[in-house]
Predict the structure of Helix-turn-helix transcriptional regulator.
Amino acid sequence: MEATPEQIAGLSDQQKAILRLVQQGLRSKEIAPIVQLAPASVDTYVRQAMGHLGAADRRSAARMLADFEQSERFVSQSPDLSEPVGDRKKVARRLGRFILSMATPPPIGGSENDLTVAGRIREMLRVTCLLVTVVSALTLVFVGAMRALH
């Protein structure tokens, strides 16, 4: 049985995260510390997701979500066949993704991280880029306000 986009859209982010962990073969007691919930709460989220998806058991609900996400990934990654993608477009697309990833704020709080040195430097650069963007925007707003007053 396949899940419809409406069924998947009806799942909360927490339900999706838990179903992804179920798909990895984890039990509720193993999932609970990861998502910072009690095992009974994990079971409740799984039961609600099963009911929403119409799944018979937790593994089939997790499989339905994984199958849907896999099919979505293939649809979103299909190349545009109407025009050839050259090296310039590939480089520009990669650069755009990099800039976009640098502009998003890093995760805050949660459990202790397991980042490598390179990962920590990347997160520091993300924070720096975000800070530069915010300060630049505030400076432009301030300069515009000062010019409007004079």
